[in-house]
Amino acid sequence: MKDRLHDPISCSRRKFLGAAFAGTAIMAGLRVDGTWGEEGGDLPKLPPVRIYYIFAGRTGNAYLTRPTEEIPKFRAFFGELEKRLTTVHGTVRFVGGDQIPPADAASIAGKLKEEADALLIIHLSGHGGDAPVLTKLVDVGLPTVVFSQPFSGHGWMYFPIWRKGKRRVVLVPSSDWADLERAIGLLRAPVWMKRTKVLAVGGPHGTAAACSPEKVKEKLGAELVVIQNKRIYDYMATIHQKDAEAEAEDYWIRPAKGIVEPKRNEIIESAKMFLAVKRIMAEERAQAICSIYCMGDPRGCLTFSKLNDMGYVGGCEGDIDSTLTMLIFSYAFGVPGFISDPVIDVSKNAMIHFHCTSATKMDGPKGERLPFVIRSQADTGAGVSLEVEHRIGQPVTCAKLIDLEVMLAVPGKIIGTSKNPLACRTQFTQSVPDARRLFLRWGEDVIHGDVMTLLHRVVFYGDYMRPLQDLADLMGFRLIEEGSGPL
Fold first, then answer.
1. pLDDT above 60 (res 403)
2. Given Cys at both, which of 26, 261, 322, 356 links 385, Cβ 3.0 to 4.6 Å?
3. Whether pLDDT at 61 is above 90
4. Cα separation of 485 and 487, whole Å?
């Protein structure tokens, strides 16, 4: 790339500034020669989600009353959960542990907003009189999970009233503590979204509400900030060449199954872009970035792929709706998304996904990398892109948050991969419940915008249709299974 740091300052002035610059270089994450080292670019972690848990009801060996020995078992279970629910962003912390009675619900409610980010109620026993007491806690407004095992009394009948009243509560009537674990994991999403910063290079692109920083803040709590593309190029000019070469070799060239069109120097330039973007995200304390310039020179395909591998989010074409969707799934389920340009094939009852940017760790940052070949971008024949081999038989969920209000989702499995020259480099086929209905009901009359906004969907490894229902309750969006309504 061309040098963008022409400096007319005289040599004597350079010498004068040199000593001061060297003295502060380490603190700033810079090398003494003025280039960024990767060691200065640690991406931000989010603080733990503080979950205040309480036990509701008495214990003992009595009719419809949980045994007393369950309480220490729950406490030990929560200790293990703090380890299991640790991600690249952070973990959860269980606080509180009160039992009502003897503790007073009103006094606990008074300190919840100061001491907690979310609420967990373990229902042990009781009848209809429980609901008014526990409503004082639910009405604090924190994202809440209520776990009610069988034979915990009859009070559970009143709990659905909270959900009907649009309170942010997930009800888990189950004997399986794994269901409790899944619900607790969901609590991370609404809490971490309120601490999230999204960078939109050149501005966001998508539905009207999602493009509004004010509405994103109001609905999700996240901060949406526009930055200029020039900033990336300026930072690229400060990346040390050896750092870019090492990044390209270690993460892309050596692990690749093959390299077809791109030259080595093009891959190094793409690696340089990743290091620059990583540096900017570290400075901004951002968890996600999207760009309307991702098909520039160099393209953003490798940058966004690795960010998604790492548990952060890189969204192509400035697609803010898909970027927010990927953040929610990353926080709730720990997996990255694949932004797709889908087409429908009724002969296979399927939807074919394709794009030139794909994560290689679709199971999450701790998962194995999928095989990949380094290619050019299909529609232009230029730049550096990826042909990732996705896993046949893998359950998937195709989803997208629309206008901050509706989540469209379609379940299925990967039933095949392809290398059709008419489409982007990474291609796979997802089974769907009803391809014809999906085609005719595409968008479910809730998407309004241009081609990209109407077309893009995001595919995630895993079947999340059931937990998405609970996540909708926690975050206040409406879930629609796309292609399931009447024709």
1. yes
2. 356
3. no
4. 7
Does residue 3 fall inside a structural domain? Answer: no
pLDDT for residue 371: 98
Which structural domain range is residue 17 located in? Answer: 11-40
Q: Are residues 36 and 72 in the same domain?
A: no
Q: How many CB atoms lie within 10 A of CB 123?
A: 24
Instruction: Establish if 433 belongs to a structural domain.
Output: yes
User: What contacts 113, CB < 8 A, 6 or more positions away?
Assistant: 140, 142
The 3-state DSSP class for residue 279 equals helix
- Considering the domain architecture, whether residues 21 and 136 belong to the same structural domain is answered as no
Burial of 361 (0-12, 13-18, 19+ CB in 10 A): buried
The reply to whether 289 falls in a domain is yes
How far is 376 from 389, CA to CA, in rounded Å? 16
Helix extents (H) in 364-407: none
For 237-266, give one letter per residue: b (16+ CB within 10 A) or e. bbbbeebbbebbeebbbeebeebeebeeeb
Which H or E run includes 219? helix 213-220
Rounded average pLDDT over 223-244:
97
346 token code pair:
């009724």
Dmax (CA) of the chain: 88
- Compute the Cα dihedral for 12, 16, 22, 27 and give only its sign: negative
Kindly tell me the burial class for residue 432, based on how many C-beta atoms sit within 10 Å of its own C-beta (0-12, 13-18, 19 or more).
buried
Higher-confidence position of 396 and 448: 396
In this structure, what CATH number is given to the domain that contains residue 178?
3.40.50.2300
pLDDT digits (tens, 9 = 90+) for 82-139: 999 999 999 999 999 999 999 999 999 999 999 999 999 999 998 766 778 899 999 9
Give the CATH number for residue 294. Answer: 3.20.14
Domain match, 300 and 441 both: yes
Q: Between vectors from CA 168 to CA 164 and to CA 169, what angle results, nearest 5°?
A: 75
